[in-house]
Specification:
CATH topology of one domain: Gyrase A, domain 2
Strand content: 15-25%
Low-confidence stretches: 182-189
Order of helices and strands: HEEHEEH
Mean pLDDT: 85
Strand order of the largest sheet: 1-2-4-3
Shape: rod-shaped
CATH class of one domain: Alpha Beta
Length: 189
């Protein structure tokens, strides 16, 4: 057995190891390529999912911004309606007061006194009129002062009026409009 040639076996072994090395290298390259491709695909999917989430949030934010604008508009309309309601309530509440003031002006009117004009500015009533005598004007002022609806009658001026004859005179006076006592207001309601 001394004549056994080991050279082909070594060559075969080298060939086998070379093939095994190349197979492992190609396998490693394929595995590395698959890992890189898989990681890229996973990261791209993650980015796409995050972009989808971001877009969903942006869409919801847009909807919420529109709803906030609608709410602000509704609040503004509500405030306007409340202001209108307050004005209407004030007008409704003051309506009987004006009627009551005119009624009280007639009740306090002394005999022989006539009103030419009556103007109300805030709570001050300015009255111009004609009286048969100065005593009639004094009586009118006492009646105004005694009324629950008026206070502080103030005579601004008296002028003799010779056109009407006798002791007649024209006068100007102001009086403050007040609210009557609470028990009187409850009796009316």
């Amino acid at each position: 057995m001394a004549h056994i040639n080991l050279l082909p076996w070594r060559e075969w072994e080298r060939e086998r190891r070379k093939n095994e090395f190349l197979t492992r290298a190609v396998g490693s390259l394929l595995l590395g390529g698959l890992l890189v491709f898989g990681a890229g695909w996973y990261l791209d999917g993650s980015v796409d999912r995050q972009n989808a989430r971001n877009q969903f949030i942006k869409d919801k934010i847009t909807v919420l911004d529109q709803q906030i604008a609608e709410i602000a508009d509704l609040r503004q309309k509500r405030d306007q309606l409340l202001a209108r309601m307050r004005v209407i309530q004030d007008l409704q509440g003051n309506r009987p007061v004006i009627v009551r003031i005119f009624d009280e002006l007639v009740r306090t009117l002394a005999k022989g006194v006539y009103f030419n004009s009556a103007k109300m500015d805030q709570r001050v009533i300015s009255i111009e009129g004609i009286a048969e005598s100065n005593n009639r004007i004094s009586s009118l002022m006492r009646n105004l002062d005694a009324s629950d609806w008026f206070a502080d009658p103030n005579l601004k001026g008296i002028k003799e009026n010779s056109k009407l004859g006798g002791q007649s005179s024209t006068f100007q006076l102001t009086v403050m409009q007040t609210s009557p006592r609470q028990d009187g207001a409850e009796d009316e309601g």
